[in-house]
Design brief:
By secondary structure, this protein is of the alpha/beta class. It contains 13 helices and eleven strands.
Length: 329
């Protein structure tokens, strides 16, 4: 029988951590029961393991019982890291990082949920590899772990035995994904139906709220960002924008990318599409009306950029988020 360790990252926990752990235990337990009911032998042993020699925790009045300490576990086949609060490295967290590295080097696979990606990245084993996390943590993650290839629009990444997922309760989708990997498709379908979790979701882009990357010290770039945000209805020329701030186009691009992680064109697109999303969510305006308001005149171009950023067409987005939508063109 193989072994799954669900980590309790002491010192990095919040209520979301406990929710991830309780939800994962419940779904994996149901998967195991269904598997054996089909006449199969038990496949995995699941333990919830912590760092400190204390086996019971109460977090926000929610009781959580631990089965073991990571120091007791010399060999595991899968480590699941739940949502966790990014924080300063301590002696305990270093012990946790060392244990994760040791297990991975010994053949264990690893799955991180939401901001648990910060713990995974802190081990160093994610350098040069693909990763996802909650979209609201994307800027902080990139700043702290520039060697990791962050894909914050993806719901799940799967690379060389390491699985990561996006934010909040999308951890449920990762659990279903792991059940299909570790059991089979039929067991995954069964669990998705019992727990009413959408099967085969691949993107979290539609949930992203773009607020602009402003936590940098480049005043010229901040002024350029403000100009873009205040002129959403204009078709902005990057050449004209760089000239406005008396800086060469190449240097302007370089500074903008360094400060925001986006090219000026990408930033303008994201600002425009965020404005379009809000209009589609809350007004009865047609797709064309919204398109013109955010500076697009070509329906095809607008649709392509909208889908690239949100994973949905403007019409699909409007139907999904606007209950009183009147679909017109």
């Amino acid at each position: 029988m193989k072994h799954i360790t669900l980590l309790y990252p002491e010192g990095h926990c919040n209520l979301g951590t406990v929710a991830c752990i309780i939800g994962t235990v419940e779904i994996l337990t149901r998967a195991s029961a269904y598997w054996t009911e089909q006449g199969n032998k038990p496949k995995y042993e699941l333990v919830v393991a912590g760092i400190r020699p204390k086996r019971d925790y109460i977090h926000n009045l929610v009781a959580l019982k631990l089965d073991a300490l990571i120091s007791d576990i010399t060999k595991t086949d899968l480590i699941i890291i739940p949502s966790a609060i990014p924080g300063e490295e301590t002696s305990e967290s270093r012990l946790m990082f060392d244990w994760i590295r040791q297990q991975y080097n010994g053949g264990a696979e690893i799955a991180s949920m939401c901001s648990g990606a910060f713990i995974l990245a802190s081990t160093g084993i994610m350098d040069g590899r693909s990763c996802s996390t909650h979209w609201s943590y994307a800027d902080a993650f990139k700043a702290n772990y520039p060697k990791v290839n962050l894909h914050s629009g993806q719901l799940i990444t799967d690379e060389k035995g390491i699985y990561t997922n996006g934010g909040a309760y999308s951890f449920l989708n990762l659990v279903i994904y792991l059940i299909e990997k570790y059991y089979d498709r039929q067991t995954a379908i069964y669990c998705s139906k019992v727990f009413q979790i959408e099967l085969d979701r691949s993107s979290q882009s539609a949930f992203v709220i773009f607020t602009g990357q402003k936590h940098h010290g480049d005043m010229m770039v901040q002024k350029a960002q403000t100009y873009i945000e205040n002129n959403i209805n204009e078709k902005i020329s990057v050449e004209a924008l760089s000239s406005k701030f008396a800086i060469g186009r190449r240097n302007f691009d370089r500074r903008f990318i360094k400060a925001t992680g986006n090219t000026p064109l990408e930033y303008a697109q994201r600002v425009k599409i965020e404005s379009a999303k809000k209009a589609l969510e809350s007004t009865r305006k047609t797709i064309n009306e919204v398109m013109f308001e955010v500076g697009y005149s070509d329906v095809k171009a607008f649709r392509e950029v909208f889908r690239k950023i949100t994973g949905l067409s403007p019409l699909e987005y409007k139907n999904k988020y606007n209950k009183e939508s009147f679909i017109q063109y």
